[in-house]
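Here is one such protein, fold included:

. . .
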Amino acid sequence: MIAEAQHQAWSRFVSWAVCSIVGLFLALLGGLYLIDPYDTGRSPFSGEPNLYGQKDVNATASVGRSPKFKAAVIGNSTIALIKPSRLTELTGLPFAQLSVPGSQIPEQLTVIDWFMKHHDRAAKALVISVNRDTWCTRDPQRAGENPFPFWRFRDSSVEYLSGLLSVSSLEQAGRRLGLVRSAKAQSAMDGYWDYEPFYAELLADPRRWREGLFRQGNDQRGYPDGSFPAVQVLERKLATLPADLSVVLVFPPVFSAKQPKPETPRYTSEQACRQAFTELAARRPNTAVVDWWHDRPDLKRTELFIDQIHYRHPIARKIEDDIAAALRHLRERASMELSPRTRA
């Protein structure tokens, strides 16, 4: 009898412990879902998107779904210094900066899908960085080395809930509730962040900085057959977008020392890639190219670069001017094509 009573007591304790753990788990998950740490808009309490654009992607979903913006800059850190506020001034289109540091093609396409999902016919323009080290590779399915939270941007509730259960989500929930002070890198409400301060240590060491700038690549590496699968990947993605959505493909600059020598395999390969994306832009209506691929005097000036792929503000301002000019040209061309129909 004593053994039986002990067994029953133990069984009740185990049942209580299991139920308590399950209850706490469900309460935690439900609480996180309602708080919506990353402001994805899934919570019934979600309102106007209000997270600051953080460098570590914590607010990308919030900025990307905001109805304040009708246009977006997509890419990795090679396009991050483009100021959306200045593009807004130059074009009249309210821009968001949605670049993700270290991102590759899958991440960038995911951000495009998220922005378009939440803007549909309201979107007016996309500026997409076609970085040669990202888009001119053999594997467009390869994700970046930096962990990217795909689960935040996908439609699967199961995937979202499973991703939500993490220490980082708890910390972000604390920040959302004002219980935890953010030590993360903050930026403007339009998603812009200035990467220059993150390189202060490098820039303070002239020898190491110049060594990185003038490091020579292997010009014998390349893809001589001119096959670049990412071109087809981007073309299929653009085909799903509204035809009246203006798209600008930006070929971001690199420091002159990174440019391959003419007539080498890498030079031939990169030029073939550049040509393939230029032809893609020509095939799609309402699409333009801002081409900073070729070497030019500004790209030889060491003071305008942090490293071989990260340029500084003076170059960013010139690229912004070119993007704005490209968008104005697309708008004028569309207006001219529409005019005869209107008169008819």
Observations:
- Residues 126 and 247 are 5 Å apart (CA to CA).
- The chain has a mean pLDDT of 88.
